[in-house]
Amino acid sequence: xxxxxLSAYIDSREQKMGKKTQAFFNQKGVNTQIxxxxxxxxxxxxxxxxxxxxxxxxxxxxxxxxITGHLQDQAIRMNDEYDYYATIVYGDVKTLKRIPxxxxxTQKSIDKMTENIEILYKCxxxxxxxxxxxxxxxxxxxxxxxxANAQVTAKPKVSMSKRPxxxxxxxxxxxxxxxxxxxxxEFGSPQKVLNxxxxxxxxxxxxGDRAVKEIKALxxxxxxxx
Length: 226
Known about the structure:
Shape: elongated
Number of strands: 6
Strand order of the largest sheet: 2-1-3-4-5-6
Oligomer: single chain
Radius of gyration: 19 Å
């Protein structure tokens, strides 16, 4: 039987985890190489000659990069440049309690972030509990996408603005792209929009009570998961 993975390239910045990943693939009979990857943590050449890129993140990395917009920006680039792309997150949401800037994020917040990343950015997100599950999940994904060139997961087609800062705001149903652009023009970033007071928001021409309500609801999703 032809192997699912022909070769694996592991980012040298992975250090300890990189060595474990290399040992895992060597046991599977996969030719592996430690190198510096432009993107992702593991790049796999599949038997259909296509590339599967895996991004590994801790729970804190996932939440933090979503809030800053880095994760959205990365997802857009990865989907444009690679055949298949997926993010694997491991850790527990409880670990965020130790990080002052993330301590108010709950599982509901993580679920909402995941939903938005998967739908708006067509980036599959998988959650695992430990390193062993992480490595096994890579194999599962590789096997899935090599079957009749299937996608990692089926994603609905959604119009994207190609601007992560816009899409952070428009993930709330009541905030459209026009409103998001207006808010960003005034405040400069999604974080400043969400932290603006009700009076500051209502002072902007075109922003009414309904828009303010949606903005505050989005702030609660990020901070409290409600």
